[in-house]
Write the structure tokens for this entry.
Amino acid sequence: MHSSSAKLTLSLDKKTIENAKRYAQKRGKSISRIVQDYLSSISKNDSQVSSQTLGPVTQELHGVLKGKISLDYKLEIADYIEKKYK
């Protein structure tokens, strides 16, 4: 960690912690680094999200609901799918 880091305490169930430790060890990273990378990635502006970070379905749907103030997301998804396969 660099000098401008701060400490954060999280409360997680034991199984989640055990899984996180195994995940981190397999990747040669600390849990802190994984959490930092994750939080950094979700805090990016939508326009900065790389298509490589999104799965294929998410990438295809990314941005289709922009600008919607009030929406019925189930209806929006159904409309999108209907239009796609017409």
